[in-house]
Amino acid sequence: MAIQPIIIKKVKKAAHAHHGGAWKIAYADFVTAMMAFFLLMWLISMTTPEQKVGLAEYFAPAALSPANSGAGGMLYGTSLDTSGNKLSTPRDAARGSAEQEDRARPTSPGRASDLDASHPAASAQANDSAIASLRQALQKMPDIAELSRNIVIEPTKEGVNVSLVDQDGRSMFREGSVDPYERTRRVLEALAPALRRLPNRLSITGHTAAARPGSARAAEPWNLTAGRALAVREILSGAGVPNDNVDSVVGRADTQPVFPDNPYIAPNRRVTITLLDASPPVPPNFLR
Question: Per the annotation, which location comes first and is thus the protein's main one (predicted)?
């Protein structure tokens, strides 16, 4: 009888494929995010209310927005909104409708020439010309790009306002002092030739921000704002603007903030030079 051969089968088991360490990276990211979150919560719990307000102001500064400037150009606008953006209003459209209404309104013979100087359209045209002159004077300054956030030129009911505005990290006057920085002096000296040529009388007004609750003021606000307005007048006088051109120099303390909802922020600190309209406005029903 034949002997059956013994067959031995050896099965080689292959190792499982390597799954990689992607899960470790994801887990590490998760742990890092949780650590950052709890660190943030700890920092917030250790922050005082005053520090929280300061942080909020830092991340939402009041500044001029180039995309929303009054006429699409530098140093031109009409108002600041609550976020600090410079917004425009359809002044040209309103002016056009006013001109059409005035043309359609009957006037008595011999009166047109008398009223031409005080006509709203003539006043608006004069204001636009003044704004153009002031902007041109400032654009000659080599460092105007750095200072553009601190200079606001806008038409108002009284005439044209030129405001030197403090911003976070860049003030126009030393803190609690009537002494201007050198950059402030350069701006005023650049404006002086245009102000000297224009026929408008000037009103100079100082403003400051309100003191935060519980904090001490560096200076008395009425004296501070009046002193800063007077310092601006003295610089303009030294640059050739006649003293007779100045109608008033006033300090308003913190009574007229730009942002009434947040009177503590830097842009409320400002000195405004108003180019007053040369002629008084015509009463609304004068020509009817």
Answer: membrane
C-beta atoms surrounding 173 within 10 Å: 23
pLDDT in tens, 248-288: 999 999 999 999 999 999 999 999 999 998 655 555 555 55
Q: What is the DSSP letter of 33?
A: H
Distance CA 91, CA 106 (A): 24
CB contact at 8 A, 270 and 207: yes
Q: How many Cβ atoms sit within 10 Å of the Cβ of residue 222? A: 15
Please tell me the distance from the alpha carbon of residue 221 to that of residue 209, in angstroms, as a whole number. 9
| In a shared domain, residues 53 and 123 | no
Q: Regarding beta strands 246-251 and 202-207, do their DSSP bridges make them parallel or antiparallel, or are they unpaired?
A: parallel
Residues 141 and 170 reside in one and the same domain: yes
- Residue 84's closest CA among 274, 269, 265? 265
